[in-house]
Amino acid sequence: MNDLPEHHLYPIDHTVHGAEKEIPDVRTVVHLHGGRTEPESDGYPDAWFSKGFDKFESF
To the nearest whole number, what is the mean pLDDT of the chain? Predict the structure, then answer.
C-alpha cells in the first residue's frame, strides 16, 4: 500500500536532474533486492509513480 505524503518534508532543489518542477515532489521507485531479475525489469531511477498512481513515468 502506497501511503506517501502529499508534500515532501524537506525543501527540494528543482535544478537537480530528477527533481524538476514538472514532476511530483513525492514519488517512489520499485526495486527488488536479492531477486534474479533481468536488468531492464529491476527498477530504474527515472521510472517512478506518485501516491495513488495519479502520475507515473516509465521507461
Answer: 84
Q: Are the CB atoms for 5 and 26 separated by under 8 Å?
A: yes
Beta partners for 49? 28, 56
**8 A C-beta contact, residue 30 and residue 42:** no
DSSP assignment, residue 10?
S
pTM as predicted? 0.64
3-state secondary structure of 6: coil
Q: What is the C-alpha to C-alpha distance for residues 9 and 48, in angstroms, rounded to an integer?
A: 18
Cell of 45: 531511477
